[in-house]
Specification:
By secondary structure, the protein is mainly alpha-helical. 89% of the residues lie in helices and 0% in strands. The protein is built from 4 helices and no strands. The protein has helices at 7-27, 30-51, 55-80, 83-121.
């Protein structure tokens, strides 16, 4: 798995932190700041894991983080009907979740294939 698969996590993490900070500056929303810093940090952390030797764990962390973020903001979008920011975050969270689930499944399959080959050599 190429470390390039960590780039979406770094990008979404940075955007999430910036969005949380913007929500705090514009509306004095402490919840936006805390959520932005929390979710953004988890996404950046998952990118670090993916770049290292813990690719599966990084993709799982990114899947869960972006899935929770997408579901939470999706509920808010349904309630308010406003695309910005809740609808946009819901779409980005859902897309990130789908991407990372596919990557995690690919890493798991690759690991199983390698394990099977090693058993065949013994």
């Amino acid at each position: 798995m190429a470390p390039g698969s960590a780039h979406p996590c770094f990008a979404l993490g940075a955007l999430t932190i910036l969005g949380g900070a913007a929500g705090y500056v514009r509306k004095s929303s402490r919840a936006s700041l805390i959520a932005g810093l929390g979710f953004g940090s988890l996404l950046i952390g998952s990118g670090v894991l993916i770049s290292g030797e813990n690719q599966y764990e990084g993709h799982v962390l990114a899947s869960v983080t972006s899935g929770v973020m997408g579901l939470g903001m999706g509920q808010r979008f349904v309630k308010t009907g406003k695309f910005m920011p809740s609808g946009l975050v819901a779409v980005l969270g859902g897309a990130s979740c789908a991407y990372n689930v596919m990557k995690a499944a690919g890493v798991a399959t690759l690991t199983l294939d390698i394990d099977a080959e090693e058993e065949g050599e013994n």
